[in-house]
């Protein structure tokens, strides 16, 4: 039986890569993002069903849930949408950036769970299990200067995931967290630095083989396709050059 996943953030980066990877593995996929034009391209190329929505809008999330109920339900939520804004010290941070990060990373996750969980439960009753997967970040695990707002938002999302897993104990529902470290995508750092290409490129300067979106998508697809009794509670993944949040090798990787 073909399973159906909702993938948020599907217009670019990890979300788009996850939508493509799941389609390649035979999943039906509903791709959700704000940018309808980019979703239309993805739909034409892969067969992903496009659904344009702003997940910081409660009415938009409710409309997504209604559409899914009308068109066949959902077996898996893959929540990738979110992001960072700003790299200022806490004392200089813009409260509006912090507000957006909390809305985009934490409240969007809560809204999706509240709206989609009834359908996900129905899918589990039919197929034996269903999934809620969240892409957080190593920023949820380790603080760093200039990352306070993003650290706080992603830590909030991670705590939501941990609490949800406990609240759903006893149900055939897997709650999965994927926490990537440095991933080079076309937009994440560019958005964080307000469109400053120089600052965004400098972040990756000299780093041999940072992760790319497809690397994270492979892990997402594996987690969802694993046997139904196997739950990957937390997968922390980094490029080899990044041994810890603060320890990043710049230059060729060589043995000593």
TrEMBL record:
Keyword Metal-binding: no
SUPFAM superfamilies in alphabetical order: NAD(P)-binding Rossmann-fold domains
Keywords: Oxidoreductase
InterPro entries assigned: NAD(P)-bd_dom_sf (IPR036291), SDR_fam (IPR002347)
One MF annotation (Gene Ontology) recorded for this entry: oxidoreductase activity
Similarity comment: Belongs to the short-chain dehydrogenases/reductases (SDR) family.
Protein name: NADP-dependent 3-hydroxy acid dehydrogenase YdfG
């Amino acid at each position: 039986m073909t399973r159906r996943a909702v993938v948020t953030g599907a217009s670019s980066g990890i979300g788009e890569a996850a939508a493509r990877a799941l389609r390649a593995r035979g999943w039906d996929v509903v791709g959700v993002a704000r940018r309808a034009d980019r979703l239309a391209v993805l739909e034409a190329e892969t067969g992903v069903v496009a659904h344009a929505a702003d997940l910081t809008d409660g009415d938009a999330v409710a409309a997504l849930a209604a559409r899914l109920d009308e068109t066949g339900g959902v077996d898996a939520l893959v929540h990738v949408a979110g992001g960072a804004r700003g790299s200022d010290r806490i004392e200089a941070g813009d409260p509006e950036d912090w507000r957006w990060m909390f809305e985009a990373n934490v409240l969007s996750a809560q809204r999706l769970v509240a709206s989609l969980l009834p359908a996900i439960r129905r899918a589990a009753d039919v197929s034996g299990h269903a999934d809620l997967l969240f892409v957080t970040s190593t920023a949820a695990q380790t603080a760093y200067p200039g990352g306070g707002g993003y650290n706080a938002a992603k830590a909030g999302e991670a705590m939501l995931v941990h609490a949800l897993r406990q609240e759903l104990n006893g149900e055939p529902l897997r709650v999965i967290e994927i926490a990537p470290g440095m991933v080079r995508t076309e937009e994440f750092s560019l958005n964080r630095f307000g469109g400053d290409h120089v600052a965004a490129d400098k972040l990756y300067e000299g780093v041999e083989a940072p992760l790319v979106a497809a690397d994270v998508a492979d892990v997402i697809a594996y987690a969802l396709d694993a046997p139904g009794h196997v739950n990957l509670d937390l997968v922390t993944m980094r490029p080899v050059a990044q041994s810890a949040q603060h320890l990043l090798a710049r230059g060729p990787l060589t043995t000593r």
